[in-house]
Specification:
This protein has six helices and no strands. It comes from Pedobacter puniceum.
């Protein structure tokens, strides 16, 4: 919300594929930092995971907004949409944690990064197929999974 107040909703100009690419860049950067352990820019892994979370929320908002909708949205509208996506994804996380027995707690952070990258590649394939799928959950479910994996990574890094 702070960035929305600073920059407005400039992100509205991004096509879904561009948002997916931004998430890819952040996840790939995390993987590079995990392997090389050195950052020449100064950003840390936690900040990149937070970026993934925010871009996933932006992506889900974009999926629901009509292309003809205003580029500039009021901060109050962004906040309502943001909170809605967080709540939906949190509820999904609780349901999956119940079903999977919180298996993420025994995973390595690097595996969570790899799962995010795999989900990104899935989304890119769905986007390349113009949204047509035969058995996939769809793009939104993949964004929700990426967001939850990023949250798990942040918990493990804390």
């Amino acid at each position: 919300m702070k960035k929305t107040r600073d920059y407005g909703t400039a992100w509205r100009i991004l096509r879904p594929s561009s948002i997916t690419d931004q998430i890819f860049i952040k996840a790939q950067r995390i993987r590079t930092l995990e392997e090389k352990k050195v950052s020449k820019v100064g950003d840390d892994i936690k900040g990149e995971y937070i970026g993934i979370i925010n871009y996933c929320i932006i992506a889900m908002i974009q999926l629901e907004l009509d292309d003809s909708a205003a580029t500039e949205l009021e901060p109050s509208i962004v906040e309502v949409n943001f909170d809605q996506k967080v709540t939906e994804t949190k509820e999904l996380m609780f349901a999956k944690n119940h079903d999977y027995g919180e298996a993420w707690r025994d995973m390595r952070v690097s595996s969570l990064t790899d799962l995010i990258l795999m989900k990104i590649l899935r989304v890119k394939q769905i986007e390349d197929n113009q949204g047509q799928t035969e058995a996939s959950e769809g793009v939104k479910a993949n964004y929700q999974d990426m967001m939850n994996y990023a949250i798990f990574a942040l918990i493990k890094l804390s």
